[in-house]
Amino acid sequence: MTQKQLENMALELRRGVIALAVLSQLRQEQYGYSLIKLLNEQGLEIDQGTLYPLLRRLESSGLLKSEWRVEGPRPRRYYQTSGDGKEALATLGQEWNKLVEVMEGLLS
Amino acid sequence: MKNQENTDLIERYVAAVGRQLPRRMRSDVEDELRSSLQDMLEDRGRALDRTTNEELMIEILREIDPPSKMAARYTGTSHLIGPRLYPSFLQASWILLVILSVMYIIGLLMSLSEIGSGHVFTVIGEMLRSLIPSTLGTIGLLVVIFALLDRVIMKVDKSEEKGWDPRKLPVVRAPNIVRTTGAVVQIVFAVAFMVVINFFPQLIGISYYTEGGWQHISALTPAFSSYLLPLNLLLGLDILLNLVLLRQGEWSPMTRWAKVGLSLFGIAILIAMISGSPVAYLSPEEMEPYAGQDFDLGPLLILILIYQIYRLVRFLLRHGLYIRIPFKE
């Protein structure tokens, strides 16, 4: 297996959890760039090209809500997890915990 | 001045992405990208204790996706017609549907005047029966042309993915920016017109419905064949010019003059067609099944000529400030 193939597999692995990570961090309101920094600081590297389209998809699914506001030097779009998003987060969080438990068992 | 340059580079990137997005999401995505890039520039400048100059902006832009890839992330990557051409495809489809509808409505009126309004439902039924396959066929042809164009353009774009250079982003100046939609629609119609005049010239004529079914009379005269070479040359050069414009993304003095030259060439061909032997004519005898009046394409050519002159004048006015007359330099 080549390095490139390994990288692609790691990318696929991460892609599945990014939505969950975003929903979790948007329990508190953030704008795009502050969310990127927040996730990066916690060890989840994510770029604009991945985050912004994902935010749009989550919003169109009703899991996020957003509004444009001027707080600071320029207008920014602030996102927050919606009611449906919080329910989805709780369900997906449980699934994630189960998965971690199973995977720990499998990998040990 | 430096800050102006930074903003300019951001605007160029944002505009390059926006041009490849569907209109419904364009302005929203552009605003968010712009805001985010400005945040990123400020933050990076602070973190590295560097001046927020153009060099830093180039570094930042190099870290993110080139415009075509960024746009593709918003619209999805699995496609027959990519995000860059999809808005043009929709526009061309609408134009074709409008043309087809107008043609069929004219055909309907002609058929009704021929066989009487008592058969209105029969005529409409027959019309719908032929309208559906012809619409599907036309849209199918359009999809094939756009899919091929997409492969050509996307192949060109892939070269920029590896170490793309933000300095090559087209400058945002309204008259300078090439409208992708317009260029692609022109290519599609030029290809379609070339196919018709070279392979299906008999399609140029009159179609009408009688009780015996659909009738079509080809109207082109032998005189038309003498215009085939200049018409093919004009259409071929027009396609080439539009491909160059799509590749460059902005007008240059050379492409402007090429456009003016091609417009004048087209006008010259039209004038020759109008003043010479008729290129499309049907005598009253040939038109006997329909009203018995003769058919001449002359008036339509005059209308096209007036429209072409109007387009040339509009182009010169729109680009006038940027056209440099070579002998004055």
Would you give an account of this structure?
- The complex is a heterodimer of chains A (108) and B (329).
- With 108 residues, chain A is of the alpha+beta class.
- Chain A is built from 4 helices and 3 strands.
- Chain A is globular, with a radius of gyration of 16 Å.
- By secondary structure, chain B is mostly helical.
- Chain B has a domain at 1-78.
- Chain B contains 10 helices and 4 strands, in the order αααααααββααββα.
- In chain B, the strands form 2 sheets. Chain B has a two-stranded antiparallel ribbon.
- In chain B, helix 1 packs parallel to helix 3 (54-63), helix 1 crosses helix 4 (67-75) and helix 9 packs antiparallel against helix 10 (298-319).
- The longest helix of chain B has 42 residues, at 120-161.
- The two termini of chain B are 28 Å apart.
- The interface between A and B is medium-sized, with 18 and 19 residues.
Keywords:
heterodimer; A: 108 residues; alpha+beta; three-stranded antiparallel sheet; 15% strand; B: mainly alpha; two-stranded antiparallel ribbon; 10 helices; disordered N terminus
At a glance:
The complex is a heterodimer of chains A (108) and B (329). Chain A has 108 residues and is α+β, with helices and mostly antiparallel strands.
